[in-house]
Amino acid sequence: MVSGSDGERRRKVMSVKAIEIAIKLTLEGTNQLVYYQRWIFLIVVVFCIITQLNYLNMTLDTFNIAVVSPIYYALFTSFTILDIAIMFKDYSGQSISSIASELCGFITVLSGIVVLHSTREPNLKLIDKMKSVSPLRYGITLMKN
């Protein structure tokens, strides 16, 4: 899944973090919109989002959304948490219990995704679904013009 590729995700996370800091400083009274670097970060974010959506759409053309969505969510969230832990050291100021509860919540969500994905009916085709709601099944005939 190229849409969650490592390099693009890191550029996007870094750029979003820079935009977040710029907005915070602007609201505190130091105008950050006059610096060209802020606009570059905004352009990088927009470019990464467009590229990511393009590859996600190409993936959805090939695979079913029931397969793509859980895998995409799990990989993107896992690597984003890992990136934040490494690049920004967000866990350095938190207690062990806070980190453990956050990781337990994340593992619970991932476990739910695995359970939902593994219990779906993989052999149920669209044609079978169409037959189950077909008007011919209930004795209703369609009128011809």
Molecular structure report:
This protein is mainly α and about 140 residues long. It has one domain. The chain is built from five helices and no strands. α1 packs across α2, α1 crosses α3 and α3 runs antiparallel to α4. The longest helix has 27 residues. The radius of gyration is 23 Å and the shape is flat. It starts with 5 loop residues before the first helix and ends in a 13-residue tail after the last helix. Acts as a Mg(2+) transporter. Can also transport other divalent cations such as Fe(2+), Sr(2+), Ba(2+), Mn(2+) and Co(2+) but to a much less extent than Mg(2+). It comes from Arachis duranensis (Wild peanut). Keywords: Cell membrane, Endosome, Ion transport, Magnesium, Membrane, Transmembrane, Transmembrane helix, Transport.
Strand-residue fraction?
under 5%
Order of SSEs, N→C?
Answer: HHHHH
Q: Unreliable runs, pLDDT <50, ≥5 residues?
A: none
What is the total domain count?
1
By DSSP (H or I, 4+ residues per run), the number of helices equals 5
Cα-to-Cα separation, first versus last residue: 49 Å
The major pleated sheet works out as: none
* Record field, number of beta strands: 0
Query: What does the overall shape look like?
Result: flat
Structural class: mainly alpha
Radius of gyration equals: 23 Å
Roughly what percent helix? over 70%
Average pLDDT metric? 76
Transmembrane segments: 36-56, 63-88, 94-116
Protein name: Probable magnesium transporter
Pfam family, one: Mg_trans_NIPA
Membrane topology: Multi-pass membrane protein
